[in-house]
Amino acid sequence: xxxxxxxLAFVDLETTGTRAxxxxxxxxxxxRVDRDPEGGPPRVSEWSSLVDPGVPIPPxxxxxxxxxxxxxxxxxxxxxxxxxxxxxxxxxxxxxxxARFDFGFLKHELGRxxxxxxxxxxxxxxxxxxxxxxxxxHGLDALIARHxxxxxxxxxxxxxxxxxxxxxxxxxxxxxxxxxEAAVKRLLKIPSLPPQLPSDALDAIxxxxxxxxxxxxxxxxxxxxxxxxxxxxxxxxxxxxWQHETxxxxxxxIRRIEFETTAGELGALLRESTLVKSAMPAHNRALRRKExxxxxxxxxxxxxxxxxxxxxxxxxxxxxxGPYSSKRAMRxxxxxxxxxxxxCWSRLGLERRxxxxxxxxxxxxxxxxxxxxxxxxxxxxxxxxxxxEAIPAWPWPGPALVREASPDGTRTDVHVVRDWHWVGTxxxxxxxxxxxxxxxxxxxxxxxxxxxxxxxxxxxxxFVPVREAVRETELQY
Length: 477
Fold this sequence. Notes:
Radius of gyration: 30 Å
Strand content: 15-25%
Distance between the termini: 56 Å
Number of strands: 15
Helix content: 25-40%
Shape: elongated
């Protein structure tokens, strides 16, 4: 029997609950199956252990699994088993019934011990559904009954791990191997590279944050994307069951792949935005240059005015409103405010007419259009209503730094930002000094502005201001 992967780990966990981040493991069972390099029967090894969760096991869980507080008292903690578990799973395709549950618990438990865990995972619930779509149920009890499996103790970790291994064996006994492998391939989204790409096209792409560029026959990219896991994201474009027309077209047109790594997600987002707007890739419709984007300002006459992105003075962005994807989006926001705050359509420039505005005719305007409310009073109410739309003032006289470290701690990038614009990213002291001395601000970028505003609202202390008077002593890279 030639299995669909060289090494498989059939895993089941018993836990104190269903929340991977909060509940803990009480038992782990692993059935590891490795292909025989000589072509003989696969080699099978079984391992299991009770685990002291460090917290009481709820009575309902004790009743379900038969694992009691007394049974786990004195058992090893997961921390003491973590390295052994990691080694047993190393190099294996992770297989579990309702795999997201077991995968999530193991990722959290191993993470608490500082061990990485990111194998490919196959869910046997999904595999059963794909290969037997007419079956009424795909729960483990149903599979055991339908296929006549005898795994031993049910609702114990090793028994359940053994059950899903027996299920896979049964599949190979009743179905053509090609059908099983095709189903697994679709579920795992194993890439089927286009024939015009070399077979090792993905090998050089790291499992790291960054951006990737797909090229066709022309020097400009067809598509620019970003991910915190470059290799997996690029491979997903060629999974063979395209859910998006773009992936199918890219698969036909692509001739080469390039990539750039970044320290983290923020750097990837910033770089993607810049590349898309400078190269204008044909397949990046959503992120291509947004010529209709802009911000709103309030003129001396108290009326809102839309300023397109190309005409925005970067230094004037703080204190404006938005940003908005278009003038239409700005008008829709203003129309919503008129209804909520009884503002005047004529005063806001939403309509041009003499006499009462549309909102006044509906008795939803305080009457600035007919003199019932003074212009100054109306404009003051407008500014108060716009408070949530205001782009906050830039908090410092100069730029600020946002440091971003890579997941493995081997790289640190420093993003230089000012007035909600991205000046650039430095990886060493020379690059940082050059960016800080740059005389001009970059052009307004709607997506970058939104990104930095969200980051500031969520994590204000990520921004470290640069004070000119003490630059030399503070900017230790």
